[in-house]
Amino acid sequence: RAPQRCPAARGMHTRGRRARPVHRASDGPCGGGCQGVGARGGLCGSGRRQATALAVLALCLLAAAFLLTSEAARSSAAKVPARAGSPDGSAKLPNMGSREDAMGHPVRKPSPTEASQPPSRPGDAVHAPAPPSEPSRLEPPVHEQPLSHEDSQQAVADWKASLGKGVDRQLRASAPPPPQPLPTQQLPGCEFLIVSGIPLGDAGGGQRSAQLARAFAHRFCTVHFVYIFPSASFENQGTTFVTGVSGLAVQQMQLSPAVATDLVPSLSRGARVIIEVPHRDVIPVVEAARRHKTQVVVEILDDWFDKALGGDWFNKADLVRILNSADRVVATALALQRQAQAYFAGQVEYLPNAANELEFRPAAFREAELALPGDWPPGASRVALYFGSLYGSWLRWDFIHEAAKVCPDTEFVIIGDASQQVKDMNKDFRNVHLIGLKQHSELTAYVQAATVGLLPFAPGPLLETISPVKVFEYGFAGLPVVATFSEELKGLPFIHQAKDAHQFASLACSELPAPSSDDLSTTLQQYSWGRVADAMMQDHKLQHAFVVIILCHNNGDFIGRMVRSALKHGATKTTMQVIVVDTASTDESPQVLADLKAELGITVVQIDSPGCSAGRNAGLAAINLPGFVPSRVLVSFFDSDMLITSASWMYETEAIHLSNPRLGAIGWAAGWFNPDLPYDTVVYGLPRRGANSETDKLGFRVSVGYLGSGGMVAKLSALMDTPGFDERFFPAGFEDTDLSFALREAGYFIAYREFGGVLHEAHKTTARIHSEAKLDYDDLLRKNGKLFRSKWKNRPQYFSAG
Q1: Fewer CB under 10 Å: which end of the chain, C or N?
Q2: Residue 687 carries which DSSP code?
């Protein structure tokens, strides 16, 4: 074994399990941190007399150690045991000289920006030694080095034993320099080529192809959007169309031979080609994808055999040829599934249309109500809403007119591109308002203000092949929906069906019950675009393991919703451990959690304190993922009143953490300090929910004061550089803010992003804790805020962030 290096110039010993601080240069003999080393790194008088002998001895020992290490590595190459989670033993153990990390994933060469950052772990670069007069900061553990799993698990065990201790330690003289955030790179292996009939923004941009493009882009996937038919109102060939979601771009172009000859061969391994229109010109794209072993997914969206939809371009032989070349076939309606099954040898999947929960959500999950649109009927107390196409034989204007006559006190707001003929047929109806075409992003305000949603489509075979996007958008917002009868829509909890114009008018004028909380929860999970994207990415596995820590204090009536939704949308994507900490509940929560543990295999921890910090520390101590090193574990914190609707948040946080090694945590909630009020400014209700130019550039926002724990996702290795949550912030308030500062103090940065697939009923959990503790919310914030500001008074730069 080579001798220990003298570490004075580095500030720490780098061999062994954990870095150990040493004295400053001025504390040793001759001002050296160890014998014979001077204050500037040179040799003092006593050191010079022995320099030659020491140098020769050191060189000999180093050479011997090198030879022994090389021989040992060669002789033991065949004796490496199989890693946990690797049945055939093929997974590699980490190697100090390898270009793979401890999970066996390739490690990319650091960029010049990354290379210039402060070191993240001992041995990476020189750390300045801390003065002996200050308590030593918890030095970064060794678990991000490619060490054995045994070493990593020991480091985790040591940290768990120290959780909650040392939270009041004295800060160092100066804060570490903030790391430089890096733009989020493409999620590895996530690339899509979507062939659509119309451009991305055509008809308001609400069609399935546009929604899927946004959903994939929101996950940091590369998206190529190819349209077949140009639009007179939207020309964007060969340019980049910005989706407006975190500044991500979708490359858009019109279909041409170059798509098959140039674009398809350039797609990355694992890419997918999605065909939405069975047009003859699509066949070369499909055949090119097959030659390059790229997965082809064909979606059947409409009954193309109907001349009103297939027009003159549709040919049955082309459809059959495209279907026979597909790896997967997806139908959006049950009737379409049966139709396609006649031409496809495999199983046709049923995957109906959906809605975007970031735009349309029930009142319970809304953070702010939008202002009424400027063209909303003035003084309207009851409004029936329809938006969509205003042409075609399937739209029954007689249903709308009958309802307008039967209920004159209801205003009928119709959104769409109205022709002169449509305007003429509605001019005699005072309470029918044609307000023109709107962008899809504008519809949210109209849906929030409406009383009932309408689907006045003609009953018959064509309606059975339609999966109307607008129906799910109405339902997501909590509206009851009056629709003409369809087997496809039968059973949706918010649908009220009519068989003729008279029944349609009667329902439209009635006070219909809104969907129940349980029905809304089911709808949000079953019919979100994020869930459709999950299905399209069913074979895309995540590189990180995920831990989900949920607190429960007398939340037995709704804790199951959060637990089930987390597992439903995440357990198939990666290794996932769900930990629920019961913080001294007195209701049915213990029994509910025992049942969930028996049914789903979750981890349940019981503690006798209602404090949020104690609960989260207990959750951290219960982490048990022996097959993963801490740098490959993402720990998420959720409240029991939250709801997961897709795995989008997991894909997003993985992409961001992979792109930013010095990111400590990214949160779904964030805020800024307000010194004059007990309440700080938070992202809820802000334009774009607090996203800014940083979000457009990086994929996240760095200029925030702190993160909220509801929806915070931190790397376990970063959490291990902190003492955990400070349990003095009792029962709740400022404990997550304190952790945000602790991560900064450990040399990480924090960031904010509104993840997809996450919803929250604000303060439903904390309100119970505060009421039981008989604490006024403002008084609690002032009490914990005073402690927080005293603890971090020497870090004014943290308070001014953002």
Answers
A1: N
A2: G
802: closest CA among 763, 762, 744? 744
For 498, the enclosing helix (H) or strand (E) is strand 495-498
Classify 738 as helix, strand or coil.
helix
Amino acid code (one letter) for 190: C
pLDDT > 90: percent of the chain: 64
Among left, alpha and beta (phi > 0; psi -120 to 50; other), residue 541 is beta
pLDDT, tens only, 497-526: 999 999 999 999 999 998 888 999 999 999
Spell out the residues 6+ positions from residue 125 whose beta carbon is closer than 8 angstroms to its own.
Answer: 118, 119
Q: How distant is the alpha carbon of residue 314 from its chain centre?
A: 39
- Find the farthest-apart pair of alpha carbons in the chain and give their distance in angstroms, rounded: 109
Residue-level pLDDT at 801: 77
- Do β-strands 272-275 and 712-715 pair in parallel, antiparallel, or remain unpaired? unpaired
**Rounded Cα–Cα distance for residues 196 and 236 (Å):** 14
Residues 295 and 328 sit within 8 Å (Cβ to Cβ): yes
Phi, psi dihedral angles at 643 (to 5 degrees): -145, 130
Give 12's strand partners: 21
Give the chain's radius of gyration (CA, Å).
Answer: 30
Give the Cα separation of 784 and 730 in Å (integer). 8
The full DSSP string for 79-101 is: GPPPPTT-TTS-SPPP-TT-SB-
Lowest average pLDDT, out of 165-169, 318-322, 622-626, goes to 165-169
Cβ partners under 8 Å of residue 456, min gap 6: 386, 395, 396, 397, 399, 400, 483, 484, 504
Cβ count near 519 (within 10 Å): 15
Q: Smallest Cα–Cα separation from 226: which of 271, 263, 191, 189?
A: 263
pLDDT score, position 684: 86
pTM: 0.80
Predicted pLDDT of residue 772: 64
- Element containing residue 514 per DSSP (H, E): none
CA distance 669 to 755: 9
Residue 328 parent element (H or E): strand 328-331
Structure tokens of 525? 């999970």
Element of type H or E holding 671: strand 670-672
Give me the amino acid identity at 551: L
Closest by CA to 273, choosing from 223, 343, 331, is 223
Say yes or no to pLDDT of 442 above 80: yes
Cis peptide before 731 (omega within 30 of 0): yes
pLDDT category, 650, cuts 50, 70, 90?
very high
Closest-CA residue to 620 (of 145, 165, 171): 165
The mean pLDDT of 705-731, rounded to a whole number, is 96
Residue 608 tokens read as: 């006798």
List alpha helices for 342-485, DSSP H: 397-406, 420-426, 443-449, 461-464, 469-476
3 state DSSP class of 524: helix
Dist CA 651 CA 216 (whole Å): 10
Answer with the residue of higher pLDDT: 772 or 647: 647
Contact 755, 654 (CB under 8 A): no
